[in-house]
Amino acid sequence: MLGLSIRQIEVFVAVATAGGVRQAADRLHLTQPAVSMALGELERQLGAPLFDRERGRLRLNAQGAEQLPLAREILERLGDMQRRHPDACGTLEGELRIGASNTVGNYLVGELLGPIAARHPLVALRLTVDNTRDITRLLLDHAVDIACVEGPVHHAQLETLPWRNDALVVCAAPAHPLARRARLQPRDFADARWILRERGSATRSLTEQAMSALPPGRILLELGQIEAIKQAVIAGLGIACLPYAATLDAVATGRLRVLRTPFLRLDRRLSIVLHRSRYRGALIEAFLQSLEVKPHAQD
């Protein structure tokens, strides 16, 4: 039987998370030799290295990537056991790694993180912002614990829970010909110059669906950030579909005009996404409760 210790598992998770022995030692308030010794002993007992060592740097290898979710689960379950002790104060602590798509991470971060930060101030929140495709990949790789994205996510290993509704709006500069029309028809968009998000973005997918219902236009630019697209539209380079929340400041100051397009379907749902095989301990449950999201019953 393996003689693994909780300290060894803590060291492994800390090194994998922090990216090195020195950083892990600082996080755990240990000396670097103590961290190196604990990690080496864990690898010896498991019979395989968990990291590739290149020029003094540690990089998680395939064996380490496979073991890391299990190690995190052990620590989370231990924390849950300790909180159930009669003498425990019940205060929730720990780290929650959250992935968010660009719309959520840049414009709805207060609504996403505010409730849990207020209820559980000792929980450290780590937010990663990227497009929906890349956030989904991080969740599948167990690089984040939970995700919030726009648009549908279809994967057998992932569970999607509805959070709130959202919408895109078609925008133009106030001087743009389309912004000057009192009432728009689909034919008015013929030959329009569009500015789009990069492929892999849920905003891009919904924009392309909207464009398919309009006469052919031209894709002038593809940009990776919503703010960059907004500035390009304000400059008069073209029109774009933007998240409603991203337009509020520019519309209020008269730099941007929202076009009325009742003939386009631009509504969408923001969703919380979880890995089906990941242990859902107190941290994840607290996060879901803070957003008033009810998970499906697990088998």
UniProtKB/TrEMBL annotation:
An example Gene Ontology molecular-function term: transcription cis-regulatory region binding
Domain HTH lysR-type, first and last residues per copy: 4-61
Pfam family, one: HTH_1
Protein name as catalogued: LysR family transcriptional regulator GigC
Keywords: DNA-binding, Transcription, Transcription regulation
Highest taxon of the lineage: Bacteria
Source organism (scientific name): Castellaniella ginsengisoli
Protein family (similarity comment): Belongs to the LysR transcriptional regulatory family.
